[in-house]
Amino acid sequence: MANPRRKLIFNIYMGFYCSAIMANICICSQFSTSSIDPFNKDPGAFPVATNGEPFPWNELRLPRVVVPLHYDLLVHPNLTSLDFVGSEKIEVSVRDATQFIILHSKDLEIMNVILQSEEDLRYRKPGKRLNVLSYPAHQQIALLVPEALMADLRYSVAIDFQANLANGFQGFYKSTYRTHGGKTRIIAVTDFEPTEARMAFPCFDEPSFKANFSIKIRRESGHIALSNMPKVKTIELEEGLLEDHFETTVKMSTYLVAYIVCDFNSVSGTTSSGVKVSIYASPEKWSQTHYALEASLKLLDFYENYFDINYPLPKLDLIAIPDFESGAMENWGLITYKETSLLFDTKTSSVSDQLWVTKTIAHELAHQWFGNLVTMEWWNDIWLNEGFATYMELVSVNATYPELQSDDAFSDVCFTVIKKDSLNSSRPISNQAETPTQIAEMFDSVSYNKGACILNMLKDFLNEEKFRKGIIHYLKTFSYGNAKNDDLWNSLSNNCLGDFTSGEFCYSDSKMTSNTLAFREESAELKEMMATWTLQKGIPLVVITREGRSLRLQQERFLSGVSKEDPEWRALQERYLWHIPLTYTTSSSNVIHRHVLKSRTGNELISQVGVSILKLNMF
Ligand code: BES
Ligand code: ZN
């Protein structure tokens, strides 16, 4: 280099992914009408139920004194009158004595509520009818119990309810399609994430209230019913009605429950581990389902092997829904897709259609582990679902369909979110979200793309093998439970200091004693580094200046729309600092050097004796 003070300026490469972001920008703009938000009410106001009585709970989040264990749910949609009736029995466990049970319910008419104690159930006593209060501003109902429920006991709550099939694309809704003959057909579909399960049945609709679900669906003989689990039996009722009973689910969050009544056809295959995979579409689009079957069989095999954890259900259905708001939804065992995200017509579809279908399938299948098996504790960390699913698209599609060159698009995805993240209006990856509107707004390019990009950066920093072992450790440790950011950082530094009790990547006790300090330090450093990427908004710009035989490293917040001459620029820089993992190689050897840039001031120097070429971001 002729000029010893020549500046090398580059944005930190995080690795990206693009087409999903298009979809998410759409979602985001739909949800961003937050000007009239019934949840932003006066914090001092006392809640009053619809009947004028005081409502006993004043918070958006449910109390944790009563937790659901099992839902027995029966739903009967009427596709002619476009409504449904339902009944459920929720088995709950009471942690502390209480006089009320608070749960979610939105736009449901509650007809009858009966409480039975364990003793009532044992001696087949009828139970007590409960009064119900409704507080629509929080989408909650309160079940008032005449005598306090006792701590450490279980109860059963039976609720009868009914509602119209929703008109939009959320909750339990009506979807229609037209046949080639011009006839309109109606089907009934669920779409619950993030907070719409409460539109279909009263429930504890928060991701950490995991429970088992036994679902029964009534239908007419011209239809089929699908749900998360395989059907165990069909019972004939009077007037030709049929009732399908589905196997009980594994422990899962309410937003992943799904059921559909339709007249669709399917193709099926079996993975190497014996999971039955089926692709469903309306009869006239059935011929476009074959590519999705091939891709999902390949991708499910890939993930089972990559995560070293088998897909835990006996079947997986993927279904193309004619009216579907988002690109797809990862309901456990019954993934719903927009038709264009699943169907592939060998005569008319393009290679870019194939790439989109493959990536969408890869994304939703990744959620069966990241999201379904291990779920974020709360919506503020939805990036643990969406960032991972987006990152895994890159890994799995590269491995199963290298000819699609999906990795080419990844840097584009990073650059797309850098654009947004360089505005002061951006937000941290983990962000407080309480109301349904705020929660819906979390499904944006920051959660999806920046999430995926920082995971890709971390993979390069730790190396692929360690990263993979770390995420396997995370998935095994928190299976059927919930996790937060720190749980991920602990698993990635493999320190085994948390609740972890077994697993092939955990060190033995003797090794732990000698290495505990090192693990703690490694974990603390990783946490500190990743906090700079997840808890503050924005993105750094690294400026590297050659100074004689050294390189001076500096970082600043990368801002678009504010020039350095603007007095505001300095104010916007303050307090922003990242721990930036850098890799570089020089013309003097093939060795890849690593350095974590932690300061802003430019005091960090890398000594480079007599090298003519320096390459950064090597991996
Ligand atoms: N979990 C989401 C679906 C979703 C999106 C629910 C927004 C609630 C709000 C699903 O996994 C998803 O990310 N779908 C994407 C398509 C995917 C290929 C990136 C979508 O719908 O845009
Ligand atoms: Zn997703």
From TrEMBL:
InterPro entries: Aminopeptidase_N-like_N, Aminopeptidase_N-like_N_sf, M1_APN-typ, Peptidase_M1, Peptidase_M1_aminopeptidases, Peptidase_M1_dom, Peptidase_M4/M1_CTD_sf. It comes from Gulo gulo. Keywords: Aminopeptidase, Glycoprotein, Hydrolase, Membrane, Metal-binding, Metalloprotease, Protease, Signal-anchor, Transmembrane, Transmembrane helix, Zinc. Residues 291-495 form the Peptidase M1 membrane alanine aminopeptidase domain. Residues 67-256 form the Aminopeptidase N-like N-terminal domain. Binds 1 zinc ion per subunit. The active site is at E364 (proton acceptor). It comes from the Eukaryota. The record marks Y448 as: Transition state stabilizer. It is found in: Membrane. GO terms for biological process: peptide catabolic process; proteolysis. Its cofactor is Zn(2+). This is Aminopeptidase. It holds the Pfam family Peptidase_M1_N. It is a single-pass type II membrane protein. Zn(2+) binds at H363, H367, E386. Belongs to the peptidase M1 family. The chain crosses the membrane at residues 12-32. GO terms for cellular component: cytoplasm; extracellular space; membrane. One of its GO terms (molecular function) is peptide binding.
